[in-house]
Amino acid sequence: MSVGGVLGGLFNAIVAPALFNNVVEYPVVLVASVATLPLAAFGRRKAAFALGAMLLVGSWTWMVFSHDPSMSTTFFAALVPVVLAGIFWRPAVLRFGVPVTFVVLWVAVSQHSREVLFEDRGYFGVSTVVHDTQNNVHLLYHGTTNHGGQSQNPKYSRWMVPYHYPGSPIGQAWKSVTARKQNFEVAALGLGSGGLACMAAPGEHVVFYEIDPVVQTLATDPSLFTFLRDCPADIVMGDGRLMVAAEPAGRFGLMVVDVFGSDALPVHLFTREAIEVYAQKMTPDGLIVFHISSRFVDMTPMLAAIADQMGWQWRVQNHVPNPLPGVPLEPTRGFVMAPTVEALGGLATDPRWAAPPARVDVWTDQRADLFSVMTF
Fold it and tell me: pTM for the complete prediction?
């Protein structure tokens, strides 16, 4: 058993990343473990059913990870007669076949309009760029989470859809700084597709901080995204907190923190110590804005508690965009903080930006309570 555990660990840590562009080893091993069960444990008919279920689930899992719409259609066509045959063979199969049919149909429909342009797996996870043919948009996914993309419509090609565009919380925060000052530098923690570079007005310069080489590769490939070709910016590779800490004090007029990865939370970038580092690098009237949209956590109370302890002013906005035909825009949440009310500019009195009470403990490098920010 110990040897098996070691071999399994070596496969998952070394072999699988070299063989696969996606994380398929878990479902593969799960299916393989079912295949090793002896026929005597089931009986012939139950074993045949288990084998069929194993093949269906394995095929469906591979189809989901592959993002290949042709596989969706082919697999669904092959599944229908199997399920129909199962209904007449054993009533219990109906309870299995109907849900699987529904799930596969949903996957087939949802994947139908997407074409995979790029997929690679690195230490920090799987990054995929797909072409949403329905909206004519290139989208970047990290794991299962949409991390923004670019419209192929020239009219909107400088918008980082679906989250960052002129009317989004980050767009509003950026505009408020531009209205007060000129010729400032912007620190952007998290590169993504590089779309934030095109928010800069003349005289403004963006410096990205990115830890994942795969993200740098796809963001600088003009066949995927043209943001960095059209709007040049600097890219500093490494951990954002450490790289920003090395910058001179007072360098930046605006800082954008957009660092969630597949809804994973890099805690060390959200502690009080980390935000104090960011604050040291800001001009006296600088503004820090966080993109905190997430399906699982709400960072608002914790960030507000840190801002209160630091004596900084803060606001939060849950933004719901107006529909725009052909441009996929999604709701997004932004949090801004600044040393004074004056540094918030127009955001301080904008009714879209609120300041609800903070009711959680501050995160530090020694203690962070994830449950305090989880949404259920």
Answer: 0.78
